[in-house]
Write a structure and sequence with these properties.
Length: about 200
């Protein structure tokens, strides 16, 4: 142990000097501990792992959605090898039929990579479109001013304006709606009070 300590050498990566003895061992340990801490810092937390898994699942669901124009489902051809679970088909369209001339078998990892990338593109495009709609709606709300004050009808009128409806027409419709609400409320209050009113003598 004494020989090991006294003969220990360590070259510092900071100043390039070679240190010996106890100091060399201490510097070597500190460098090793710093590397281990860096590895731990890079390791994702359980929450980060769960979020990544959910993001991947969302992307897959979006890519495989039958509502997509390029997603089809039909019976598996009998001549297709049982060993093929994932892959890509090569085809051409003949009238109203799809003529397949080849199948490239894939590993699941390659399929997952393709589908996740596709799903993320769809999600990004949808987010971009929604951001544009939200921005337009906020701009319309600001331009309409105090017209859109009733929370019950705020979204309905915002949608109309965002779709290009005339601000004055929407404003008039909004005022008419509010006036109608007030009239109906007043009528109900009147009917309620009349129930307790004394009958007028003949």
């Amino acid at each position: 142990m004494v020989d090991f300590i006294t003969t220990a050498k360590f070259k510092s990566s900071e100043d390039g000097k070679v240190y010996g003895g106890i100091l060399a061992l201490e510097m070597h340990y500190r460098q090793w501990a710093a590397k281990q801490a860096a590895k731990r810092a890079k390791k994702p937390t359980p929450r980060q792992i769960a979020r990544r898994q959910q993001d991947r699942a969302n992307a897959v669901a979006k890519a495989e959605n039958p509502a997509n124009d390029d997603v089809f489902e039909f019976a598996k051809p009998a001549q297709l090898s049982e060993a093929v679970e994932f892959g890509r088909i090569i085809f051409k369209v003949l009238g109203d039929k799809l003529f397949v001339v080849g199948v490239d078998g894939w590993e699941q990892a390659k399929y997952d990579e393709f589908v996740i990338a596709k799903g993320r593109k769809i999600l990004a495009r949808e987010a971009e479109i929604q951001a544009g709609i939200d921005a337009k709606r906020e701009g319309v709300k600001e331009s309409a001013g105090a017209v859109l004050v009733n929370l019950r009808y705020d979204e309905d009128f915002s949608d109309l304006l965002a779709d290009g409806a005339d601000v004055e027409e929407v404003t008039a419709a909004f005022k008419a709606t509010v006036a109608d609400m007030k009239a109906k409320r007043l009528q109900k209050q009147t009917e309620h009070l009349e129930q307790f009113a004394d009958p007028i003598p003949d």
